[in-house]
Amino acid sequence: MKYIAVLLLSVLLFSCEDDFLDQVPDDRLTFDQTFSQRNTVEQYLANIYSRVPDEHAQRYVDYFNAGPWTGVSDEADYTWSSVWSNSMNIGDWNPTSGSVNNIWSSFYRGIRSASTFIQNVENCQNCTDEKLKQYKAEARALRAFFYYNLMRSWGPVILLGDEPISPDADLSELNRSTMDQCVAYVVSELDTAADELTDFPYDGQNAGKMSRPFALALKVKVLMLNASPLFNGNSDLAELVNADGTSLISQSVDVSKWQAAADAAKDFLDEFVPGTFSLYRENDSNGTFSPYLSTRNVMITDWNEEIIFARPRGQSYFFYDVTPFHAQYSSEVKGGGALSATQEMVDAYFMANGRSIDDPESGYNTDGFSDFQAPYDIQERETYNQWVNREPRFYVGITYNNSLWLNRNYGNVVTETWYGGNSGRAVGGNDYSNTGYVVRKNATTDVWWNTGYAIPMLRLAEIYLDYAEALNEAAPGNTEILEYLNSIRERAGIPGYGDTGLPVPASQSAMREAIHKERRVELAFENVRYFDVRRWKLAENAFSGAMHGLDINAPSESNFYNVVSFENRVFNPRHYLWPIPQDEINSNPMLIQNPGW
Could you point out which of 35, 185, 196, 509 has its C-alpha 20 to 30 Å from the C-alpha of 570? Predict the structure, then answer.
């Protein structure tokens, strides 16, 4: 048995240099043995699960199936030049980039392994019928999940079908399916899997496994993708056609796609809320509801009532990246602090009265300092007025100059991000924020090297916002749009639209803007923003041009607060869809490259 386990792991590790379709399994003679016993069946299934991305390792995209999603959006930037998101931000990537190939190949290997598993698991001699049904449904849901990950980056892809690719198959004439065909297939797979999967979320020893709720929530995400402007009547992709002339992207806007997404979201909510899931709420030590603790701890309280799907545990890299340098303090609170929040993201947070900072009635003050006590602090501190009286999610998401660090087990550590501060450029070497802000959301309150935390990948708040967005596009004016949007704001501790003089967005476009703003703040640093802005076809404005932060090179703290540009980013029309790896194009002349590459 140990031999089979080692062999399976070897296949997983040493096939990484091959193209995704060029995978003749050198262990195929052991398949009868592999699928004959429950323990080796579960080992094989565990290997498929290993393809689920570890998004806590985004500075090592090539090693943990992670993506560059946070640093490549307008939310943040990695100080370290070696992180691949920095190459993407200046347009230095193409079909030959190793990371492009690795991400593409990893998901296709997962798809192939899932198909092999589904085809062979019935040979298990000591698996009950109930177990066989569960195993196959998990593999089917995983296969659909891998396709979704491909589609949201590359658009329409090659559907391999239900049968594993034969070692003797002719691979030179495989066409990309249309986006509508890809969506229909993945949705059908998710529906089939959901019918066979357990109808409650997994935790404990089953943490991170496929479940009926996740399959149906993922269906919402797939339909949202297909309904969005990037794929719904996008004339900019009119030239994306197969060799036989088949258009891969629908050229007419179809509002019914938004309705399909809204219906799927409503079905999910009707089935699982409030019985299975609810928005996470937490009281403070006085027993009073705390929006700050609620919006912070929803991300770090494992398997809480809002989490639909999470990866059981990840690497400690992310926690190191968001822990400031804290020179001269103990290693328990000393990190890299190099995942830098942008000024654009800082400015996106609302004020405590629920208004955007550009609203004349917001009370936003651009100059000076005040004595202010942040929700996590034990006392007032001199605070730059731009950071005073912001909404609770701001204090969840951003570490700013002169703010108290989360982990107080080793004393009260106050973070200083200006040039000469304990986490500034003068003392940190390569470990400093290049914007003067450090991403704080998802940071553990424990030592940074604790890897025992789950990684939330989908939570109920996102489905609420999906439903509001899809309904606004399909049935503007529907009262449930405001209901679900305001429920997010209420949990965040800010007034809902229509409360305390805050006007309800008066048109479909105004409501769309409000939903976009809410998604940006509520789902900040959760690997959503990059995909949202692309599917909305707004990335050429949001992700291109100057990105800003504070003046981390100013020798005096007083000049540190000046906003400066730290980078000019590049996002061209071709960047809406990733390039198919060049090796795949070379080996299959029927495979059409995405436009511009």
Answer: 509
How open is the CA angle 82-85-91, to the nearest 5 degrees? 105
Greatest distance between any 2 Cα atoms in the chain? 73
Residue 328's SS3 state is coil
Mutual angle of helices 479-491 and 508-522, in 10-degree steps = 30
Residue 490 token pair: 């209420």
Query: One-letter amino acid identity for 291?
Result: P
The owner of tokens 């106050």 is: 414
Q: Residue 80 pLDDT > 80, yes or no? A: yes
Q: Degrees (nearest 5) of the Cα angle 590, 592, 597?
A: 140
Radius of gyration of the chain (CA): 24
What's the pLDDT tens digit per position in 110-169?
999 999 999 999 999 999 999 999 999 999 999 999 999 999 999 999 999 888 776 656
Give the Cα separation of 473 and 475 in Å (integer): 6
**What would the two tokens of residue 434 be?**
């290049």
Residue 270: partners with Cβ closer than 8 Å, 6 or more residues away: none
* pLDDT tens-place string over residues 426-459: 999 999 999 999 999 999 999 999 888 899 999 9
Q: What three-state secondary structure class fits 337? A: coil
